Amino acid sequence: MARDNYSYKKYQKELARKKKQEEKLKRRLAKKNEQTKVDSTQVSNEDIPRV
To answer: pTM for the complete prediction?
Structure first.
């Protein structure tokens, strides 16, 4: 019977964890940038004096 290669499994698990963390970071940054754009749009609309 073949033996498990635990070091390879551990390596694959670490790669998956790092990939997941990077994707999460990208989503957070995208959400933050989107929020900043919305806030700046609202501010520019509020600066226009209404007659």
So the answer is: 0.58
